Amino acid sequence: MGEGVLTSGFSRVDGALACEGVSLDRIAAEVGTPAYVYSTSVVRDRYQKLDAALAPMPHRIHYTLKANSNRGLLNVLRDLGAGVDVVSGGELFRAMRAGFGGKDVIFGGVGKTERELREALEAQVLLINVESEAEIRLLDRVAGELGVTAPIGIRVNPEVTVDSSHRYIKTGEKGAKFGVPFDEVLGAARVAAELPHTTLLGLDMHIGSQLFRLDPYLDGTERLVELLGKLKKDGIDTLEYLDIGGGLGVSYDDEQPPDLTRFAHALTSRVQPTGLTLLMEPGRFIVGNAGVLLTRVLYRKRSGGRQFLITDAGMTELLRPSHYDAYHRIEAVHDTDKQMTADVVGPVCESGDFLALDREMDDANAGDLLAVYDVGAYGYVMASNYNTRPRGVEVLVDGDRFAVATARERYEDLVHLEHEDPQWRDA
Ligand SMILES: Cc1ncc(COP(=O)(O)O)c(C=O)c1O
């Protein structure tokens, strides 16, 4: 990941884990568990390192809200100068509430509704990354109704092979549901250039997540540059942005994340000659390693020769292990030199509810606190209320201070949309 990137804001102090200058014991005692605890230093560091690496070319980092849309973290990133990438009307609403302006926003997503397109145009976003010709035509109609011109980026499927850790997080191979197929981009670009209420400002790709090799990124970028040449030949010369998506990998176990300096260097040589501004949409890279999930062991029991630790967090708090077979490091908050092999499972009524299976780990018993690492991306945002479980609390740490950024849900929050006495309508 290049030199000096902060890999963790968590360390052991006097026999117990702390986030920056605040002990996890203290946080658990004050706000309870399950709790997501985020180190703002890691987030700042990641953003600044990436920004510095890209400095040789005109660029902007649009942090992807889908990874973690916590208001407090958005404030941190906004203060650093980040833009945002959103994929729904809800994320646009969150971004605007967090103080981002329309020109800070890229609006993407494979299935935007007419209402969402209208909202994006009303917010005057920088770019709407479209994924089909039909979407361009719809956007043209909506923009015409509003009396504006829609700023369009075409999300290209560059059809490159990626080596991501799970097939669910590959998005840029031939036949994926995302983007415009490579050989149809020119046609879509002509439509965008010719319609009266659209202007083509960018080409975009996002080839997958948790990427460690540079070549698919560079191959994809080259394919965008190749398209750019074809568009120019065709007389389409309105483009200002080249958006290469997110996807930079982070370490959950012993993976070697890409070297930022090499990455930026290789990109510069390809993008600089185009004269366009480079946009990136990282999510996991910025926040992935910045958070832990604090959970308490409720019970320890044996069954069929296996040891189980039953914790107060499970698939409802962290879906990644059961959904993507993802590995997350787990440690006891208090030092111990005893080890055990355990299945760490949640309280949800599902056999697929687990945080780790067959894991060699610190010995733990009922009442002990565990820290599940690297839950800053795709953690809380994928949490659910399954089994009518209130979502946990989100805490930000900044040096020696901490603050609750999102309160724990209450039972009343879970039923507040329900009608006690539904009003029946006749057919
Ligand atoms: C269009 C788009 N951009 C950016 C991202 C962020 O990816 P990552 O968190 O891997 O950086 C995603 C994630 O799925 C995405 O779909």
Percent range of helical residues: 25-40%
Shape type: globular
- As for the CATH topology of the largest domain, it is TIM Barrel
CATH architecture of the largest domain: Alpha-Beta Barrel
Low-confidence stretches: none
| Strands, total number | 21
CATH superfamily of the largest domain: Alanine racemase
| Biggest sheet architecture | 9 strands, mixed
Q: What class do helices, strands and sheet pairing give?
A: alpha/beta
* Percent range for β-strand residues: 25-35%
Output the radius of gyration.
23 Å
CATH class of the largest domain: Alpha Beta
Distance between the amino and carboxyl termini: 61 Å
Mean of residue pLDDT values: 94
Structure, described:
- The protein is of the alpha/beta class and 427 residues long.
- It folds into 2 domains: 10-38 and 288-415, Lyase, Ornithine Decarboxylase, Chain A, domain 1, CATH 2.40.37; 108-282, TIM Barrel, CATH 3.20.20.10.
- Helix content is 28%, strand content 26%.
- It is built from 12 helices and 21 strands.
- Strands 4, 14, 15, 16, 17, 18, 19, 20 and 21 form a 9-stranded mixed sheet that branches. An 8-stranded parallel β-barrel has the order 5-6-7-8-9-11-12-13, surrounded by 6 helices. It has a 3-stranded antiparallel sheet with strand order 1-2-3.
- Helix 5 (114-122) links the parallel strand 7 (105-107) and strand 8.
- Helix 5 packs across helix 6.
- The termini are far apart.
- The relative contact order is 0.16.
- Pyridoxal-5'-phosphate is lined by residues 64, 66-67, 85, 108, 206, 209, 245-248, 281-285, 377.
- Pyridoxal-5'-phosphate (PLP) binds at residues 64, 66-67, 85, 108, 206, 209, 245-248, 281-285, 377.
